[in-house]
Amino acid sequence: MAWEWIPRNLGMLGGLLVEHVVLALVPVLIGLVLAVPIGWAAAGNRVLRAVLVPAASVLYTIPSLALFIVLPAIIGTRILDPLNVVVALTIYTVALLVRSVADALAAVPSLVVAAATAMGYRPGRRFVSVELPLAVPVLIAGLRVAAVSNISLVSVGALIGVGGLGQLFTDGYQRDFPLEILTGIVLILLLALVVDGLLVLIGRISTPWTRVGATA
Amino acid sequence: MNALFSWLTDPAHWSGSAGIPARLGEHLWYSVLALALGAVVALPIGALVGHGRRGGFLVVGTANGLRALPELGLLTLLVLLMGIGLLPVTLALAVLAIPPLLAGTYSGVRNVDPGAVDAARGMGMREPQVLFKVELPNALPLILGGLRSAALQVIATAAVAAYVSFGGLGRFLIDGLRTRDYPQMAAGAVLVAVLALVVEGLLALLQRAVVSPGLRGGGRRSPTATVGRPAPAPADPDPVPVREPAGAEP
């Protein structure tokens, strides 16, 4: 059996893992930063919501391989540019999160908002220190889906030459070497598990009030 | 853009076993097979676990775990182990169809108003009747939502099947990539995207047509409140979030 392939290639595997993490999670961060204002706009305006939320759903419908390939023509990158993958996954993340943000913000009780206003919060500070924190649980749920699906989607990028651990799939397939593919699958699953766990943890830490009263 | 347009309108690309209609047929065929196989596995498990209201944690956990499974890896691994053929491709695609179907069925059945279930038992229904006559019809919106997500996922991934020398619309993408034929690639990408959007739209219509009118407004209504006056139509029947049936997250 060729198990010793794994220890012999630890360096290469580590490099691919780092590339994979960057390709999958940078879009999550950018997507979050973009989705919050868009979702905020959608939550505050019925007409905008009727446009933005379905538009986001349509964007999310576009198959990843198709998006990876069409993007260069739209944004003018080279076809094998890693940027294509980052932009495509950012689009998916935004598409997924706009709805979460809009729903979460719309669900903030109006009494809480009114109380904050009465305490003298201006709309900007009220949003950052009252409404956004209350939206965190729903936001984290959206982020978990986005992060896990990005981690799995990055590997499709291997077909256009940029896929992090996905390159183990194309390489293993061409060399008829199942162990290499299996290694890639296991690493991706583990990565997804770890990132998902971290997001749950971040959600817990950033919403201490959700645990108060639950035990009382 | 012009090159893409002339590729798409070239009559030579619309006939023969490598033409667009033939590739589209193959693409749909794999997708339907995979969805059927996925449904055969996911629907009974989701319905039974939801009905028994036990073991849900396991179902949701499994569904979320399967979601992280990289499609390309699964496909290449199965093809290497089983040889190129319809079976490994269908299996790989079916595995992708299972998480949304399972999560949708489970959460649909699990979240049926317990009052309705109790009433059904009180009327003397046996357990199978409760499941088939009350819980499943009530769960239909979420089950169909799961089906929509699964169909999208499968159609998107069936494009990847071309990498392992299989047919479907993905052929245009992969062949175009190998020969640096950009118009062909772009045409393939556009065709796959359009197919996904059309199927999504059709399933959304189906969902509207099949779901019992009593379930449409969402929210719980008192049985007397609507007597003599139909409830107003829901303001915004948003599509179920694509690929993510409600309640998929614990």
Notes on the structure:
- The complex is a heterodimer of chains A (216) and B (250).
- Chain A is elongated.
- In chain A, helix 2 (10-44) packs across helix 5.
- With 216 residues, chain A is mostly helical.
- Chain A contains 9 helices and no strands.
- The N and C termini of chain A lie far apart (57 Å).
- The model of chain A has no long low-confidence stretch (mean pLDDT 89).
- Helix content of chain B is 69%, strand content 0%.
- In chain B, helix 1 packs across helix 9, helix 2 runs parallel beside helix 5 (86-110) and helix 5 packs across helix 7 (127-158).
- Chain B contains 10 helices and no strands.
- The longest helix of chain B is centred in the N-terminal third of the chain and has 33 residues, at 20-52.
- Chain B is an all-alpha fold and 250 residues long.
- Chains A and B meet through helix 3, helix 4, helix 7, helix 8 and helix 9 of A and helix 3, helix 4, helix 7, helix 8 and helix 9 of B.
Summarize the helices and strands and which ones pair or pack.
The complex is a heterodimer of chains A (about 220) and B (about 250).
Chain A: H1 5-8, H2 10-44, H3 46-61, H4 64-75, H5 82-106, H6 110-118, H7 123-153, H8 166-174, H9 178-206
Helix pairs in contact in A: 2-3, 2-5, 2-7, 3-5, 4-5, 5-7, 6-7, 7-9, 8-9
Chain B: H1 2-9, H2 20-52, H3 56-67, H4 71-82, H5 86-110, H6 114-122, H7 127-158, H8 170-178, H9 182-210, H10 213-216
Helix pairs in contact in B: 1-9, 2-5, 2-7, 3-5, 4-5, 5-7, 6-7, 7-9, 8-9
Organism (chain B): Pseudonocardia yuanmonensis
Keywords (chain B): Membrane, Transmembrane, Transmembrane helix, Transport
Subcellular location (chain B): Cell membrane; Membrane
